[in-house]
């Protein structure tokens, strides 16, 4: 048995089935997780799309994204947990919105100790 994505040989008990495909554990994990936040290609394509549309700053963002952006800018930096609580978002929701804001080079994340903060790019 082989992983349909990377071709790794699998024992019967190592095979995972995801969306009808037989996959190794790593590939299964990759597919179940959203794209990485720091993805230079995604950043480049998001930026070029925004350029084509003549968008800059917070143009073209959803209300929620603008809300996240303005909350972070107002406070100059805010921990991820605090932002989640303030805007009543789930970690997944915040992660998704943040990925886009990161791609647009509006916000960045950094770590201090064990706390993740968001700040203006
Ligand atoms: Zn694989």
Give an account of the 3D structure.
This protein is α+β, with helices and mostly antiparallel strands and 121 residues long. It has a domain at 58-120: Winged helix-like DNA-binding domain superfamily/Winged helix DNA-binding domain (Arc Repressor Mutant, subunit A, Orthogonal Bundle), CATH 1.10.10.10. It is built from five helices and five strands. The protein has helices at residues 25-32, 40-52, 63-75, 80-87, 91-103; strands spanning 16-18, 21-23, 77-79, 107-112, 115-120. The strands form two sheets. The protein has a three-stranded antiparallel beta sheet. A hairpin with a 2-residue loop joins β1 and β2 (21-23). α3 (63-75) crosses α5. The termini are far apart. The chain binds zinc ion. Zinc ion (ZN) binds next to α1.
Give a nutshell description of this structure:
The chain is of the alpha+beta class and 121 residues long. The chain has five helices and five strands; from the N terminus they run ββαααβααββ.
Task: Fill in the keyword field for this structure.
alpha+beta; two-stranded antiparallel ribbon; elongated; 17% strand; three-stranded antiparallel β-sheet; 121 residues; Arc Repressor Mutant, subunit A; binds zinc ion
Structural class: alpha+beta
The name CATH uses for the topology of the domain at 58-120 is Arc Repressor Mutant, subunit A
User: What is the helix tally?
Assistant: 5
Under CATH at level 1, the class of the domain at 58-120 stands as: Mainly Alpha
What small molecules does the structure contain? zinc ion
Quaternary structure state of the chains depicted? single chain
Give the strand tally: 5
Largest sheet: 3 strands, antiparallel
């Amino acid at each position: 048995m082989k992983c349909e994505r990377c071709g790794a040989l699998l024992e019967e008990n190592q095979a995972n089935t995801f969306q009808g495909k037989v996959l190794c554990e790593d590939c299964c994990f990759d597919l179940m997780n959203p794209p990485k936040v720091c993805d230079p290609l995604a950043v480049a394509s998001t930026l070029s799309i925004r350029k084509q549309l003549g968008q800059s700053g917070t143009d073209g963002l959803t209300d929620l994204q603008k809300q996240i952006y303005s909350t972070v800018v107002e406070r100059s930096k805010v921990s991820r947990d605090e932002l989640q609580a303030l805007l009543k978002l789930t970690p997944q929701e915040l992660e998704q919105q943040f990925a886009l804001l990161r791609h647009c080079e509006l916000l960045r994340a950094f770590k201090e100790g064990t706390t993740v903060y968001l700040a203006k790019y």
